Structure formats: structure tokens, C-alpha cells
Amino acid sequence: PQDYSVDCDSAIHQRYVIYAWVFILVYPIGTPPCIGYLLWRSRKRLNPPHAKSEADALSIRAKDQSIAALHQLFYPYRPTFFYFEVVDIYRRILMSGSLILIDGKPQRAVVGLGLSLFFVFLYQTASPYITNPLQALSISGVWMLVLVYGGGMLLISRPCAYSDFGLGMLLMIA
After folding, report:
1. How far apart are CA 161 and CA 167, in angstroms?
2. Distance between CA 152 and CA 123 in Å, rounded?
3. Distances (CA, A) of 154 to 97, 102, 168
4. In DSSP terms, which residues pair with 129 in a beta bridge?
5. Do 156 and 105 touch, CB atoms closer than 8 A?
6. Number of other CB atoms surrounding residue 143 within 10 Å
7. In the structure, what pLDDT confidence band is assigned to residue 2 with cuts at 50, 70 and 90?
8. DSSP state of 138
9. Over the stretch 147-161, which tens digit does the pLDDT of each residue have?
10. How far from 108 is each of 28, 101, 112, 122, CA to CA, in Å?
């Protein structure tokens, strides 16, 4: 539905359009490189090169107060994957915001399924998280995207006879 009370040619509306475009550019384009730079700048403190083991590296970086401001960005990740928050941000941007730019539902579903399978491979191979429960939660989250996009492909392509209700129930249970 359209709101005909909004004049899209008014000066105030045009200012809001510019304001919206600035912030569309700030978050997806500006935030990940800024976070990446902050983490890269502190990489020797986040992944201490002189640490004898991963446990030693975790202990060293836990005691280092100079990186306390970055704690939320690196603490769930193993020292060698201190930068993984940037990877995860790009995953979220790709999977939630940029797929809408692809014309056609079938193409969007195929690209979404391909990307979600790529992220399953990446997260399972890299194993970037410190704890096993967090790793399992992350991997199950990316597998859920595979199910969602796979279900989307089934809904769009209808390769066999099935009920929408049955597929919906299967996706809800999974």
C-alpha cells in the first residue's frame, strides 16, 4: 500500500532520502572495514605470537587491558580467528540484505542456497569459536539457512507433488 499523503518531491523528503542513503552506505560498507582495522591494529595482542598454546594465548589476551574496549568483537573467537567478527558481519549482510538485489525468486533462492552452503563449509572447516557449544550453535544456524533456502527452492520450483502445509511443517520442525 502507498501513503499518498507523502510528497516524494518535497525538499524534506529528498533530505530524508539522502540521509537514508548515507546510512545505507555507513553500515554495510563502512562498519566492517573499520572493525577490521581496529582488530588488525591490535592483532599481536589478540593473537599473541609468543604464546606457547591456544590456552596460553587466551590467558595473555584476557589479562591485557589495552584491548578491553575491543572485547565484544573478539572474545568468542579463538586467537587465530580474532578477525572473524568481520567475516560474520559480511555473512549477515549478504544473507539478510543483499540477496534482495537479485532479480527473480529462483535465482535469489539458488544464490542464497549456494552462499549458505559456502558458509556451512567455512564455519565447519575453520571452527573459529573458543567453545564447542558456541561452535555448534553457529554451525546449526548456518545449516538452518541451508534448510530455509532449500525449502524456498522447493516452493518456487515445485519439482514433485507435495503439500505446502507438509513442507511448512517440515521447515518448522527442522
Report:
1. 11
2. 22
3. 22, 18, 11
4. 77
5. yes
6. 17
7. confident
8. H
9. 888 888 888 877 777
10. 20, 9, 6, 21
Helix (H, G, I), strand (E, B) or coil at 84: helix
Q: What is the pLDDT of residues 87-122, one digit of tens each?
A: 999 999 988 888 888 888 888 889 999 999 999 999
C-alpha cell of 41? 591494529
CA-nearest of 86, 90, 92 to 128 is 86
Q: What letter does residue 95 receive in the DSSP assignment?
A: I
Backbone phi, psi, residue 59, to 5°: -65, -45
Q: Is the CB of residue 142 less than 8 Å from the CB of residue 133? A: no
Contacts of 54 (CB under 8 A, 6+ apart): 78, 79, 80
Lookup result for grid cell 565484544: 72
Torsion of CA 60, 66, 69, 71, to 10 degrees: -10
Helix (H, G, I), strand (E, B) or coil at 77: strand
Can you give the C-alpha Rg of the chain in angstroms?
Answer: 21
Asked whether the predicted pLDDT for residue 174 surpasses 70, the reply is no
Map grid coordinates 538452518 to a residue. Answer: 144
pLDDT of residue 158: 75
Task: Give the bridge partners for 77, in sequence order.
Answer: 129
pTM for this one? Answer: 0.79
Dihedral Cα 44, 45, 50, 51, nearest 10 deg: -130
